[in-house]
């Protein structure tokens, strides 16, 4: 069943390149995005978007918020479902309510969806399981087509959720006319390259396996990134936490100097997401500050970074989303290799269930 892989998580990491192609199938047509699941009238009068989800799906949602605002210029907010439910949210009927869930059964996300529906909002689910409770309730659904995900630590569900959101951002941009032909063509070209960025390079995997032995102790990890690499940093930290049981935080790199940098010493591991195509000089100076305070730095980038104690080189891509996807694989592999060295059950980490159907 594991097809020669040590864990389902490993198999699912390796499957990402193929399932992302499934996610795009029939939805990229002549350099345009089409969703047969939604008609443009459904989106008429929509002035804003609210995304709601839990855990990894929330991190996908945050990534989607950056993409939709960048590409379609529609204001987006993204909230954790268990917070949203109890805060007496202000809901306007011209807001599209999007829920994201791998299982389609997460109790808090389902309840948030019910609230939005009863407030009269149009609702859209991004989900991996057809006929799940969330799919049955939402007005419209876009399936992620990742296939069954067995590992408790979500991997391929995450990358396909982000793909749907990226396509949705482009779809909205067609309606709002916010991208010129040239920019649209570049986006589509990058989108179609995603399976390459997600393909696991055996040498890269081996490099991560070898360096993982340096990261088995210490007093904590900071995963840092900027812009859309901030939610990816959150996801990297969650992945590590849930299967290695080591303390990890995801942080916006520019916020480190507002407090957390006080923790910096050689036992503080900084995993720095340093994309060439997005705010490289800004993140570089944030990492330099941490290095000057003696934090141990593991840099993930296509650009040589001389201050890194460890350096994971990714391919040179010309779009930040391709860097995002290859880095997502690096973070998944890093968490998995650390957890394996620590002797943990990667597929069934302690205290966790695949689907959280209680609030
Ligand atoms: O099925 P859902 O996407 O609604 O699940 C949400 C979270 O419970 C889930 O993403 C969880 O955080 C994963 N274990 C993360 O790997």
TrEMBL record:
It catalyses: D-fructose 6-phosphate + L-glutamine = D-glucosamine 6-phosphate + L-glutamate. Residues 38-178, 211-349 form the SIS domain. It is found in: Cytoplasm. The active site is at residue 354. Its main location: cytoplasm. GO terms for biological process: carbohydrate metabolic process; fructose 6-phosphate metabolic process; protein N-linked glycosylation; UDP-N-acetylglucosamine metabolic process. GO terms for molecular function: carbohydrate derivative binding; glutamine-fructose-6-phosphate transaminase (isomerizing) activity. Keywords: Aminotransferase, Cytoplasm, Glutamine amidotransferase, Repeat, Transferase. It comes from the Bacteria. Its EC number is 2.6.1.16. The keyword Nuclease does not apply. The keyword Cytoplasm applies. GO terms for cellular component: cytosol. Homodimer. Catalyzes the first step in hexosamine metabolism, converting fructose-6P into glucosamine-6P using glutamine as a nitrogen source. This is Glutamine--fructose-6-phosphate aminotransferase [isomerizing]. It comes from Nitratiruptor tergarcus DSM 16512. The chain holds residues 241 to 599 of 599 of the full protein.
